[in-house]
Structures are given as structure tokens and as C-alpha cells.
Amino acid sequence: MAETMILLNKVQVGQAVRVLKIDAGKSLEGQLQHMGIREGEVLKVVQNTKKGPIIVAKETMRLALGRGMSQTIWVEVISDVKSSSKKN
Amino acid sequence: MMKSTICLAGNPNSGKTTIFNVLAKSHEKIGNWPGTTVEVKEALCLIGSEQFRLVDLPGIYSLTAYSMDERVASEFLLQEHPDVVLCVVDASNLERNLYLTCQMLEMGQRVVVCLNKMDLAKRRGLAINSSELSQVLGASVVEAVASQNKGIAELQEALSRAQQQSPHDFHIDYGELEPLIVKVQQQLEDAHIQSGFLNRALAVKLLEEGPTSTEFVRKTPNGEAVLEKVAQAKESLAVNVKAQVLERRYAFIKGLAAECVTKTLTLEDMITVSDRIDKVLTHRFLGLPIFLGAMYALFKIVFTVGEPVVDLIQNFFAVLGAGASSGILSAGLPAWLASLVSDGIFSGVGSVAAFLPYIMILYLEISFLQDSGYLARAAFIMDRFMHALGLHGKSFIPMLLGFGCSIPGIMAARTLGSRKDRILTILVLPLMSCAARLPVYTLFTAAFFKENQGLVVFSLYVLGIVMAIVMAKLLRQVLFKGETVPLIMELPPYRMPLLKDVMTHMWVQALMFVKKAGTVIFSFVIITWALASLPFGVEYASEASIIGHIGRVVAPIFVPAGFGFWQAGVALFFGVMAKETIIGIFGTLYGAQEGTLPVILAQHFTQASGYAFLVMVALYTPCLPTLVTIRKEIGARWAYLAAGYMFVLAWLMSVLVFQIFSLFLFFFTSG
Q1: Are B459 and B376 in contact (CB under 8 A)?
Q2: What are φ and ψ of residue A62, in 5° steps?
Q3: Do B393 and A67 lie within an 8 Å CB cutoff?
Q4: Model ipTM?
Q5: pLDDT digits (tens, 9 = 90+) for B525-538
Q6: What are the C-alpha distances in Å from B342 to residues B50, B513, B522?
Q7: Cβ–Cβ of B282/A32 closer than 8 Å?
Q8: Which of A35, B66, B402, B476 qualifies as a cystine partner to B409, CB 3.0-4.6 A?
């Protein structure tokens, strides 16, 4: 399991991930929790460029997370980018 | 008989405002938003034959005070005792929304749940068993689509029913913590601590270290002792009590949502229209140009659509003023009265009122952007840049609102989680040119930059933004060292804004402007007129009048900026009360009707000094109401700081602009 654990900002667009650990300090973790980002939850990365914030989807919710924020969330990839999307 | 209070609560983007507007349709009365201790929107509403006080809490995710908004909401509930809490829940995102509802129920509130956006939920393949939800929660659950007025009658019925019922006994089972909860509850009872919460809920809140509740208990006579006992009891347990409480509550909600919601679509299918729009609007390269284009269009529309109407109103006031004045004279009444009516009232108030169309259009556009969901995207796009300034994208929304009026912008900064971010945002926010400064820009550009009016006005907006960037960077380095709190922000799905919501928002703002024009501005115009006419026998608005003396004292400061004459000094002096008065004062001092004011101004200002004056107006000390709001929100010393630094900054910039502009003109015309 440890080898599949990566930071959220390293996840490619279209990949679904499960949240393993959040390491952002009390207040931010609390905020994330109340918005539905908790350990064990499944998210999908909708947008991720090299700089700036990323967008994740949790079911119908879209959440923008600052780059710094995304670097505190450890996840494991549970599904790869669909083969239909031709991305390198 | 006291009116019953219905309090609206819900997550941001749950459609709370729409519900508020629908319910408040008959007796709309918006409370004073920079209000007293707890600022909340208020209206009267009529259900059946009974009148209710309808209170709109800010949109929040929980009652745990992570942001100022959440603090305000939980303080309101702790101290006031609303008769019914109407929880507006976004049905398409049930699980997250239920958290707040459960907190309300735990507190012992009489809750009515409004499952809003049922249409959206259906489209997203979610079927919700609302009767089961109602049973578990012990509260009425009403399905609704507020944007189409569906379910509103049922909602009203449920509200009036709930008011007569006693609150359902709602319990979340906290498992092994139960004995501890009972113990704390007993301690609260022994200490005779009473709050708007049930004692059980207060006990739970203490265990999960809710800051508002802890503070509340600490302030009670026996509070300290109780808190100490709670701390001891917590330590005696081997588990992390706070984490355990949250985990139990989340588990309960997750279970409840799983039981009541049937999903027919998978995560893969949930790529929505909204996501497709986002692919373009938040695109890495396209996002920013699109945003800037939208901003340019915003102001272009204000001028193009507004101008003919403004002209019309100006002419109307000019004719009215002249007519009234000659009427008074021909009726044999004294000349000073004619002067008061024509020079004071009509040219002063009229010149301000004429700009109402601009303000209405601007607000219409801002609330359109806000309701459509684009404003959150703008924050997203700007996050990268804001980060470079030591702020984050969320600070951008208050600043954007500042283009309408600084005050709602300052209030909106409450959604920011960190106090440092909040103070910093508020300090630079008044540099955004508010709608009240727009009339001054329009008037001066009409006088000096007829051909490039739009461009020159745009440059002032840009100047404000650039200065805000510089100041934010500077303040961050000097006063607020340390890390920026990262961005967490929901991007609501795009939707077509409801005409009613947009109109209501615009109308409320326009009404405030009219009120301001009618009271503050009116009285300052009268004062100016009086000061310009006294001492007796002096020529109206001449240097020998009292106002001439005031102006002469202030004027020398502005000599290096090119407008060191007393009229400008007076206008700037009174402009601190409300920026719009600047035109009114010029109108009164020069005794000009609106149409002729640009011509008269051209005799006093040059292009260079005119632009320098605009730079001054764009950047100098915020108006008094703004300063009062800053004081109320973050404290007096910050208000003084804002007043002081902005004046110095404005003076420096306008001197710089005047000197460079003059030099440029000199070479340009001579060579």
C-alpha cells in the first residue's frame, strides 16, 4: 500500500483516487472534513495543471483546492484514465 | 404578541437565497446589513395569516467556527432562540448538506428540512426517499425546486406546523462516549448553565472543542470549573474524544445518506455540462483572457446602456431646478431660497441621483456573475496570481464585490478562514474603485477625455488593482509574515441566474444608494450650500465664504498634484463622507446644473490635473461608512491604518501622475 500512496497534486486528470491521509493541520482538516473530503472517500481529479489550484470532484461536488492544499492530501489511485481519452 | 422567528440555514449554493426571496415576497424589508452585534439579513414573511420574522444566516458548512460566517451563525443560534430553523439542503449533494442539518437537530432546534434542487438531483440519477429521511431525522422534509416555485406551499405549511410542535428528540449514538456525554451534561445542569442549545448538544460541542460553545461556557459564572472537569474527564479516556465525536457523526450521516439515496449513475457518468464549460472557462491559457474580457465587457455595458438614461435624468433635474428657482422668485419668495433649491438641492442631489442607472447596471451584472457560478471560477483563475501576493483566490471575491461597494466586500471577507488573510484583504479592498467613485470618473472623463472616456475610466480601475497588488505584497511582508492559508472552495454548478434573485439584489443596493443620496448626501449638500453662503452678504461659493476658508487650508497640500485650489480641497474633504458627494459639491460650489458642469470644470482643471484628481479620488481615504465597517469587522487600528495609508498613497500617486503627465505634455506640445 505504501508504494501506491501519492500526493493529490501528482494525480492525473481523470483518475479516481481514495483519500488515505490528510496532513494539513487541525483547522484545514476540519474544513475539508465538513466539505466531505475525509479519509476513505473517493475523489476524481477533474483539472490539474502544473501550477495553480486543482479541481477535484466528489460525486456531484466540484472543489477547488490550492496547490499547497493538494500537497497535504495523500491518496491512492483506484482507477486509471480511461483508455478512450488519448492523453500522453 | 411577539412574532415567531424562522431562521434559514444551509450550505453555500444550496439555494438558500432563492428560498429567502420566495418566502419574503410579501413584506420585503432588508435589515441593516452593517448591523449591530450579529449581522444577518432579515425580512418579514407572511404564512397563512401569520407574520413571521425571517432571518437569513450566512451560507455555512457547519456550526464549527472555522470562518467568521460560521462563528456568526453559531453565535446567533446560541443566543437567540429561533422558533423554527429551516434547513435548506441541496438534494444533489445530500450527504455533505446533512451535516449542518444534524447539528441543528442535535441542538434541539425545531427543524424543517427543505430538499431543494430536486430536479438537479433527478438529472444526476439520484432518487431520494424523503419520507424515510423525515422519519430518521424526526423533522418534516419537503421536496422543492425553489427556482421554479415548486414545493413552496408545502414548505410554508410545514413551517407553520413545526412552530406548534415540540422539537423531536434527536439522538446520534456516540457509542463508548455516551457515559462521558451524560457526565458532562450533568455538570452543565449542576452549574445551571443555560444556552440556546440542549444541554446534551452543548456537552457534545464541548467534547469536540467547538470554540464558540467553549467560550460561551467559559463566560458563565461556573464555566471555568465545568471546563476543567470536562478536560479531566476527557483525559481519563484512552481515545481521542474529539476525533471520536466527529467520526461517529460522520458515520451516522453517511449511513443515513446511503439509506435514503439510490444512485443510478456512476462516478464516470457525472461529468456534467458544468465540467464541460469549466474545461474552457478555467482553462490554463484561455481562462485569464476570458476573465479579463468579461471584466471589460462588464464596464463597457455599464456605460453603453447607462449613458442615455443618465443624460435623461440630468436634463430632467436641470429643467426642474431652473423651473423651481424661477417659480420661487416669481412667487416673491426670497432669493436665498431659490438659491438653496436650485444650487443646493437640485444641482447637488440631482447630480448624484443621475448616476443611479450606472450603479443599478453594475449591481445587476455583479449579482448575475455571482449567481451564475462564474465568480467562484474567477477566484479559481486568480488563485495563482493572488498567491504570488500572499493571498489566495477566495480573497478575490470580496475584492470583486468591492467594485460595487466596499462594504459588502468587507463583509464577504468573513468567508476567509484565516484572520491574517481577512485583515489583509480588507485593508486593500477599498482600493477597488467602488460604484460611488464611478460618477466622478464619468464626469471628469466627459470633461477632459471625451474621445477615450471608456479607456481612461478603465485605467483608473486597473490602477486600483495594481495598487492593491503592491500594497498586499508590502503589507504581507511587513505586518503579516508567514504562510498563506491554502485555498478550499466549492465550485457550484453553472446555472442561469434567476431574474428575481438578481433583481432583488440589485434593488436592495439601488435602494441603499437612493437612501444615501437622500440622507447623507442631501445633508452634506445642504451643509456645503450653507457654508458657501455664510457669512451673510458674501458672494455665493466665493473664497470669502466659510467653505472658501476650509478649502484654502486644505488646498496647498494638492499644489504639487496640480489641483491646489480650494474647490477641489472642499470636494475631497466632503468626499470622505461619501465619494459621490464630490460631484454634488462641485455642482454646488460652481452653481452649475449637471449638463454644464464639465464645461465649468474645464476652466479649472487641465487634462493633467484632471487625471491627477481622478487618481486621488480612486485611491484616497475610504468613505466614512466603509471605515466604520472596517472598524466593526477587524478593529479600530486597522481602520485608522486604512484611512492613513490610502491618503498617503493617493497623494503620492497623484503628484507622480501630474508631474509625469505635465512633462509629457510639455515635450509633446513643444516638440
Answers
A1: no
A2: -115, 130
A3: no
A4: 0.86
A5: 777 778 877 777 77
A6: 48, 22, 13
A7: no
A8: B402
